[in-house]
Write a structure and sequence with these properties.
It is elongated and about 75 Å long. It has helices at 20-29, 108-117, 125-133, 148-151, 208-211, 260-268, 272-277; strands spanning 2-3, 52-55, 58-63, 78-84, 87-90, 121-122, 182-188, 198-202, 217-220, 229-230, 233-235, 242-243, 253-257, 285-292, 300-306, 315-323, 326-336, 341-344, 350-356, 361-369, 372-375, 379-380, 392-393. It has a six-stranded mixed β-sheet with strand order 17-16-15-14-13-23. Strands 18, 19, 20, 21 and 22 form a five-stranded antiparallel β-sheet that branches. A four-stranded antiparallel β-sheet has the order 2-5-11-6, sandwiched between helices. It is an alpha+beta fold and 396 residues long. The longest helix is centred in the N-terminal third of the chain and has 10 residues, at 20-29. A hairpin with a 7-residue loop joins strand 14 and strand 15 (300-306).
Length: 396
């Protein structure tokens, strides 16, 4: 959820004829539609301070909608709309000079003080995200498809001169938000942590597709100093909207008793690679299902079953994400001719699927990473562990 600055447009108050509220009501009554907000009505922004750009008032789609990947479910909102007021942001990280190396190695308080000396302030994390996503709410500042070359993402954060990568800019004209240093914000890290952490945005990492997103953030103690963290300044009235995310963490893996109708939906979601592997895919039936919680706020369903027959049957598990009533297939892991036995052994993000064939017992590893599930290599001659969870009733 979000707090502060979120809500619906207030109802118009009726005033005497000729008043602004009466005029607005009259326009709507005359089928002219609602009166446009001031930034759509030609209102000019205030004069822009040197070295800054104007970020106009508008709607930010905060976080990452469910089903858009990569996504960190226990750190990001599900694409909630937040209306922010206009503000100014520096074009480059502090000291905001083209071709200069950005300042790093300061605490959050030191960053705040340096902005205040300029008559400015530290940006909030949602202001930072708005400036990065631009008016069209892109995933990356340059668009919706990841390109490592645009901002030089995919490596460790480095103190590089700013302004060298001309395409690394948002549609609002803010530059070098990724590819170099992380940046302090003025916002607390309200994602279920009991520690007094703050949100840090931007930066770089070897997983550039994840870190290079405008919605990505990390948590740091405000007194932390690092040569990988700098900052940039904003000006104008601060937007007080904050990210507040309730994080739920269920059992890592638990067998559930689902109704037959739900299991049949899982049958229908069998992916193409599973159908190609199974000799009689039309007889495949899921007879057991588990709920998998690899991280907080993420719930996946693991369905296990086999085709008809005994010696020639094929078995395995499918992993799906429920999108309303639709089962979205994410991965398939064969368990050979053995009824599949899924297990979590040490980390909830790693799911082992035990099975076997005429040669030996084996297992396959399903790995959860940022909303995706990938299948690892087959490991033979392993011992199938005993059952580790009991079923409990849960209707879907």
């Amino acid at each position: 959820m979000l707090v502060a600055g979120i809500g619906c447009r207030p109802k118009a108050k009726h005033g005497p004829p000729g008043s602004p509220s009466a005029s607005a009501s009259s326009a709507e009554a005359a089928n002219l539609g609602p009166v446009p907000p001031p930034w759509d009505a030609g209102k000019k922004p205030p004069p822009t301070p040197e070295g800054m750009v104007w970020i106009p008032p508008g709607a930010l789609v905060a976080g990452t909608p469910k089903g858009v990947l990569p996504r960190i479910a226990d750190e990001e909102l599900e694409g909630e709309q937040v209306v922010l007021g206009g503000f100014f942001m520096s074009i480059f990280p502090y000291p905001n000079e083209e071709a200069a190396i950005p300042l790093a190695g300061v605490t959050q308080d030191e960053a705040k003080a340096l902005c205040e000396k300029r008559g400015q302030r530290l940006c909030t994390e949602l202001e930072w995200e708005r400036a990065c996503k631009g008016p069209d709410n892109h995933i990356y500042e340059y668009g919706d498809h990841y390109r490592a070359d645009v901002c030089g993402t995919g490596g460790e954060p480095r103190m590089l001169p700013v302004g060298l990568r001309l395409p690394c800019r948002s549609d609002f004209g803010v530059r070098d938000m990724h590819g170099s240093l992380f940046e302090w914000t003025a916002s607390p890290w309200n994602r279920g942590s009991r520690e007094p952490l703050v949100a840090v945005r931007g930066g770089n990492s070897p997983d550039g597709e994840l870190t290079g997103r405008c919605a990505n953030g990390v948590a740091r103690a405000p007194s932390f100093k690092s040569q990988a963290i700098g900052f940039r300044c904003c000006a104008g009235p601060e937007n007080h909207a904050e990210v507040t995310l309730h994080v739920e963490r269920g059992p890592a893996l638990e067998l559930h008793q689902y109704p037959a109708s739900f299991l049949r939906r899982l049958d229908a979601a069998l992916p193409d690679d599973a159908r190609a592997e199974l000799r009689r895919d039309d007889t495949f039936r899921i007879n057991a299902a588990w709920v998998w919680h690899p991280i907080g706020n993420e719930e996946l369903v693991v369905g296990g079953g086999c085709t008809a027959g005994t010696t020639s049957r094929g078995c395995g598990v499918i992993v799906v994400r429920m999108m309303g009533d639709k089962a979205e297939p994410m991965a398939w892991a064969s368990s050979g001719v053995f009824v599949p036995s899924p297990r979590i052994e040490y980390n909830p993000r790693f799911l082992w699927v035990y099975g076997g064939d005429v040669r030996s017992h084996f297992r396959r590893l399903l790995t959860y990473a940022w909303g995706r599930v990938t299948l690892g290599a087959l490991e033979r001659n392993v011992k199938i562990p005993p059952a580790q969870s009991k079923a409990r009733s849960k209707k879907k």
